[in-house]
Write the C-alpha cells for this entry.
Amino acid sequence: MKIRTVPAAAASRGDLVVVLAADGVDPDAGSKLQSAIAAAKGTGDVKASFRATSLFHQPAKARCRRLGFVGLGKVAALDTERLRRAAAVAQAVAAQVGVESFSLVVGAASLGSLDREAAGRAIAEGLALGAYAYEAPRKDRKRPKAMVCSVAVVGLSKKDERSFQRGAELGAIAAAATVFARDLENRPANLCTPTDLGKAARGLAGGRIRVRVFDDRAMAKWRMGALLGVARGSTEPPRFRELHYRAPRRKGTVCVIGKGLTFDTGGISIKPAAKMDEMRYDMCGAGAVLGLFHALANGALGDHPLQYDVVGLVAATENCVGPDAQKPGDVVTAMDGHTIEVLNTDAEGRLVLADAICYAKKFHAPKQIVDLATLTGAVVTALGHEVAGVMGNDQKLIDALVAAGKAADEPLWQLPLWEVHKEQMKSKFADLANINGGQHGNGSIAGGAFLSYFAGDTPWAHLDIAGTAYGGIAKDYYKHGAAGTAVRTLLHWLRSL
Ligand code: BES
Ligand code: MN
Ligand code: ZN
C-alpha cells in the first residue's frame, strides 16, 4: 500500500472515493463532491455507524465512478483505534471493488477533538496494516498489485493540516515496519532461520544504522554459555546481531533486545504436538526489534531530535532436540558469570535473553534496557491476547512504556516483580534456576524475576508479548497470524525519550 496525502480536490476523482462519515455529522469531502454526497444522502442509504459501509455508483460523467462511505460511529466515541479500524475497512472496500487506487477523505468535524497528528497516523496505519496479507509460497503465485491511496482531510487550518500530514507520513512508516515484522514472523521456521533473520537485519544497514551479525564463535568468545546451551540442540547455527542507530545528538544509549527463537520445540522438555507449529512465532520479540529498525531506517523519527543511540540486539537460535541438546539439570554459565541450572529446557527464552542483557551492559552501558519476548504461556492465561505484560526494575521506564503502548493502541499491563519473586529463582545446584517451582504459580513473573538478576541496577523493563504477538481477535487492520506487535509502541517510546 502506497499512501500519500493530497488536497481535497485531487481526492475527488478516480475509480473510488471513500468518505469517513461520523454519526450525526454531515460528511464533508470538499466542494467538488458536495452534490454527489447530497445525492447519496438523499437515498437514505448512507450509513455512519462504526464500520458500516455503503457504496454508490456515480453517473457516467461524474468526477468519480464510485462514492463509498465508512462509518466512524458517534464522534464522542471516536478514538485512534476506531479511526484505524475504519481506515482498514475503507481499504477492504477498495480491495473488494478491485480498484488499484482510491481516495480516502475525511472532514474535520467528523474527527471531533482527536489530535490531528494522531488522526493522520491512525488512518495511514489502518490502510497499510489492513492491506497486509502474508504471501504464502504457492505453485501458482499471484502477486497482488500494490494499491495506492490518496488521503485528504477537509476543513482544517493549514497548521492542523500539516500535523495531519505529518501523522500520515509517520503512520505509513510505522505500518510498513509492522508489515516487515509480520512478514518475518509469519514465515515458517524452515524459511526463517537464525541465519535468515541475520540477512533481514543486514538489509536495514545504511545511513545512521550499522548492523553487525555475530556467529557462535563470537558468542563462545564472549562466554554466552546460556545462549549457546540452547543452541546446542539444533544444527541451525545461532546468530547474535546488533543494530546500532546513531542519534544526531548523543547523550547515551538505550538497548532494545528481542527474543529470536525461530522455532521452539521445548528441547528435551519437549512441547506437546498440538499447535507446536505456532512456535514459529517465538521470534516475535526479534520481529519487534527488526521492525523498529526498519522504521528508523525509513525516517520514523521525522524531525524528532532523539538524544540517545538505539542499539537493537537480537539473540536468534532454535530450541531443538538434537543429540547434543542440553538436558534438564544441566548447569550453564552466562556471560556475566551467573551459573544457571536448566531445570526445564523449554524455559529457553530467558536463557538467550540473559546473555543478550549481559552483552548490552558490557558493550553499551545503556541508560535503559527494554527486552521483548514471547516468554511465557502463563502471560496468555493471565492477560489473554489483547494486552501484553510488562515488568521491570524501574517504574519510570515502565510508566513510559505503558504510555507508549496506550498511544499506539497496543496496551501493556504491569505485573509485579518483587523480592519474593526473585527469591523463587534461586537454585541449590547453581546461582539461579531457569524456572520457579510449580507450587509458586506466577509463571510470567518468574521469567521476569530470572532476567532481573542480569539487568542488575540498570533500568530495565521486560515485555512478555506471548499473547499479543499472534492469536488476537481480528480487528480489520489485523486478521490472523503474526501481529507485528510492539513496533509502534517502541516508536512512541523512543519519541518520548
Ligand atoms: N515460547 C514459549 C512461550 C510461549 C507459549 C509463547 C505459548 C507463545 C505461546 C516459551 O519458551 C516457553 O516454552 N515457556 C514455558 C516456560 C515454562 C517451562 C516455565 C511455558 O510457558 O510453558
Ligand atoms: Mn520454550
Ligand atoms: Zn520459547
User: Anything to note?
Assistant: The pocket of BES (ligand 1) is lined by residues 264, 266, 282, 344, 346-349, 374-378, 380, 435, 443, 466 (CB under 6 Å). The chain has 14 helices and 17 strands. Residues 378 and 444 are 6 Å apart (CA to CA).
